[in-house]
Structures are given as C-alpha cells and as structure tokens.
Amino acid sequence: MTSSAVESVLDVALWFQDRARYENEHLQAQKLQRLLFIAQGQYAIKFYGRKLMPATFVAYEVGPLEPNIMRYFEFGPPNIPTLDLPAEIQEFLERLWRKFGHYSADKLGEIARAHPAYKNAAKKGRGEEVTFGAIAKGSTEKAKPAETLKTADGRVVTRWMPPKR
Which of 17, 21, 111, 139 is the most exposed place for a label (fewest CB within 10 A)? Predict the structure, then answer.
C-alpha cells in the first residue's frame, strides 16, 4: 500500500476551508468534496502514484464523496485546530487552489464525474468505492498528452521512466 503525504484527509479539507476563508469565500460542501477528489488524482500525477491523503471516495449520483468528510462537515466546518502541513504539501495545494479554486461546484463536479475511476465505480452502483489505484491510473492516463513537450527544433520529448519490474 502506498503511504500518504499527510496523515488525514481532514488536514487537507481544513486547509481548503482555511484557504477559502482567506479569500472571504464560502466553500460549499460539494466543492470541498470535489477539490479533495481532484487533489488526490493530481497528487498521484505529480508524485508518480503516491497518495496525498488516506481517503476513501465513494460513488454517488452527485460524484465521488469522501464519507468521513461528509460526516465531519455535515453541519459546517468542525471546530478543531488546523495542523500546519509540510511546506511542499502547502505549495502543491496552493497550486491546485489557483488552478481549480475559482471553478464552481458544478464545474468541479463535471470534472470529477468525468474521471474514469468514478465512472467505473458508478457503473457498479451507488456507494461503490472509487479505489485509489483507479484514481491514480485514471489521472496519470489522462495526464499523458499534456506532458508531451517539444524541443526548439520540434522533436517530441517525453519523461523517461525506469521499466516496471
């Protein structure tokens, strides 16, 4: 099993809550859920399949939801202290916020529901787990075209990866 970069999904959820509050924005529960799902996939892309947080996403009609966060935030953000995340995690989350934070909950829902891992889990039925392996695989497969770079003379450059054993 892949280790996580942070100890709890709650740490990341509270970071997003604090970040939204910093911008005087109310972070809707659905938007928070979708940011968490997207963050898990984006982190897997950037860090070669590593988990950002220990989270279990479940397929519902509205998209993937993390049931623990759903329960904690059911009546608003919980009144617990926020932990300082490592600097590299804060930088990652800040970049993710700049990229996706301005999207509406609906737009983020479209993105999350279009993810292959969610689609496969949703086909199996409501409440089906969206596994991390499927999230990572679907995220990295979708990212491959965007990672294609070209040299000044037009040759295609791709990242070298050691062969799998």
Answer: 21
